[in-house]
Design goal:
- The protein is mainly alpha-helical.
- It folds into 2 domains: 10-78, Arc Repressor Mutant, subunit A (Orthogonal Bundle), CATH 1.10.10.10; 82-131.
- The chain is built from 6 helices and 2 strands, in the order H-H-H-H-E-E-H-H.
- A two-stranded antiparallel ribbon has the order 1-2.
- The longest helix has 21 residues, at 111-131.
Length: 132
């Protein structure tokens, strides 16, 4: 953004909506570590192949994820390495705001699950940061 606020927020809204789904964000965080097949993602997430494929299609439509074929296998990867920087920036923002975002009455989680979620997010972000 070059330090400027965009005139039209719609593209940023669409980007954050694409990452706002827990499954899609988990896929992006996993792909920040390197390529993965659908079967790898289904095992990691404990979801059906069709569900993972649907989320991958969404991320591909947004041009955030792409794939390469090798034989009968498709290997998915982050198409935009800038996503890793975005995730790091988000972790910094979350660290600076403490529980304010997690406890937000509109978008936050109930206080009982905040500690678990924050720990899981931190662990995932640490893993993602180690991948670059």
């Amino acid at each position: 953004m070059n330090g400027r606020v965009p005139v039209d927020p719609a593209p940023a809204v669409a980007l954050f909506r694409s990452l706002g789904d827990a499954t899609r964000l988990a896929i992006v965080l996993r792909l920040a570590q390197g390529e993965a097949r659908v079967v790898d993602l289904t095992r990691l997430l404990g979801l059906a192949q069709s569900t993972v494929s649907k989320h991958l299609a969404c991320l591909r439509d947004c041009r955030l994820v792409d794939y390469r074929s090798k034989g009968r296998q498709s290997y998915y990867f982050l198409a935009r390495p800038e996503l890793i920087d975005l995730l790091r920036s988000a972790e910094l923002l979350l660290a600076e705001t403490g529980d304010a975002i997690a406890l937000c009455p509109v978008y936050g989680e109930p206080a009982a699950t905040t500690t678990t979620t924050t720990s899981a997010t931190a662990a995932t972000a640490t893993t993602a940061g180690a991948a670059s």
